[in-house]
Amino acid sequence: MWFRYREWRDDQQGRMRFEDLLRLFNQLLVQASGNVAQAISWLTYLDNRYGLFSDEPGKGLGDFIEWLKQEGYLRETEPGEYQITSKGNRQIRQDSLDRIFSSVKKAPGGEHPTPDSGQGVERLSETRPYRYGDAPSNIDFSASISNAIKRHGLDKLHLNEDDLEVYETEHLSSCATVLAIDISHSMILYGEDRITPAKEVALALAQLILTRYPKDKLHVLVFGDDAREVKVEDIPFIQVGPFHTNTRAALELSRRILKRHRNANRQIFMITDGKPSAIYEYGRLYKNPFGLDRKIVNKTLDEAVKCRRDKITITTFMIARDPWLVDFVNTLTKVNHGRAYFSSLNQLGEYIFVDYIRNRRQSLR
Q1: 344-347, long-range: CB within 8 Å, 24+ apart, which pairs?
Q2: Burial 155-178 (b: 16+ CB within 10 A, else e)
Q3: Residues β-bridged to residue 127
Q4: For residue 184, with 0-12 CB atoms within 10 Å meaning exposed, 13-18 middle and 19 or more buried, which class applies?
Q5: Are 245 and 277 in contact (CB under 8 A)?
Q6: Residue 167 to residue 143: CA distance in whole angstroms
Q7: Which of 40, 165, 243, 348 keeps 20 to 30 A from 27, CA to CA?
Q8: In whole angstroms, what is the distance from residue 248 CA to residue 256 CA?
Q9: 126: exposed, middle or buried (Cβ count in 10 Å: 0-12, 13-18, 19+)
């Protein structure tokens, strides 16, 4: 998690609104894996150090917690114990989406292939001259009448085909996406928290799809020694464990999930910081954390090839530059005909969001 600090001024003390504090509290909740007590403890520490709350009646930390309950973001299960409500969960996703979208750049770099299949159109702000076959609903009447006035004048105003302007449109592909998040132990090693940015991306992507592309499908899974699917509501509670990296299990489960969505463009977004170091064989976990184990690598690449045959594209977002990881991902990308990005943690959301949106659009010319 990153914060931008500036010089503290005493005249700002006590002026933070509860709505602003909610965004901070939600960030703390994600970092605390949904543990409300831990988030409140961190918020108390910040208040003691920086004076976030006012001493005035109705503006203290206790009042803020009461406000969270009254607004429906928290539910008190027992005296002093709280849970996140469904409304609170939605607000966490929305805050994550707002933070990531506020920093998304127009082009983070790289070309992105666009699938041809899709359904639906979205109107753009740009216009062009009308061509036979364009939908009448896309006519820009203001621009068309303006063209007629320029061409014929007000006295002899009439509208013909040459005057018409239509809005440009984009073809919207129907997408089914699996976001696979590495929860192996390395995601919190060496004093660097890599899991919190990954969770924030998952939260934001879920909110984007639920609100803007409701016909798209998003599945989230986590993988360590094995892989399992998690509900969108459970994303804040994802935690890293003492696990190895079973990339094969992640791809295998993703492929099984995506095969249920036969009429959509299908893709896997995989966030990882480690090379594959484990597979299940004959019901037992075979693991080797040292170097690239040829047995593990080959079984994992076999899954990548199966994904390619099922027309499932794998996009890997690498948040580490371990030479072993780089070598493996380059090979996996080649056999799957997929894509790979080396991403810093603070740019992870930019890469994923721009790639997702571009990958589901095709301009209609």
Answers
A1: 344/319, 345/192, 345/194, 345/197, 345/319, 346/2, 346/103, 346/197, 347/108
A2: eeeeeeeebbbbbbbbbbbbbbbb
A3: 167
A4: buried
A5: yes
A6: 10
A7: 243
A8: 12
A9: exposed
Helix (H) or strand (E) holding 284: strand 284-287
Rounded to a whole number of angstroms, the distance between the first and last alpha carbons of the chain is 43
From the centroid of its chain, how far is CA 344? 15
What is d(CA 23, CA 100) in angstroms, rounded to the nearest whole number?
13
Q: At 330, give phi and psi (nearest 5°).
A: -60, -40
For the segment 225-270, what is each residue's pLDDT rounded down to a tens digit?
999 999 999 999 999 999 999 999 999 999 999 999 986 789 999 9
Place of tokens 């984009």: 170
Q: For 167-223, how does the pLDDT look when each residue is reduced to its tens digit (9 = 90+)?
A: 866 555 678 999 999 999 989 887 789 999 999 999 999 999 988 888 889 999 999
Retrieve residue 136's tokens. Answer: 């009448």
Query: What tens digit of pLDDT does each residue of 54-107 get?
Result: 888 888 999 999 999 999 999 999 998 999 999 999 999 999 998 887 766 444
Q: Nearest 5°: CA angle at 145, between 142 and 149? A: 135
CA 354, CA 365: separation in Å to the nearest integer?
22
Rounded Cα gap, residues 342 and 110, in angstroms: 11
More confident residue, 362 or 336: 336
For 120, left (φ over 0), alpha (ψ -120 to 50), or beta? left
DSSP 8-state code for residue 139? B
**What DSSP string runs through 314-357?**
EEEEES---HHHHHHHHHHHHHHT-EEEE--GGGHHHHHHHHHH
**Token couple for 254:** 């993703």
Give the SS3 label for residue 157: coil
CA 18 to CA 80: how far, in whole Å? 20
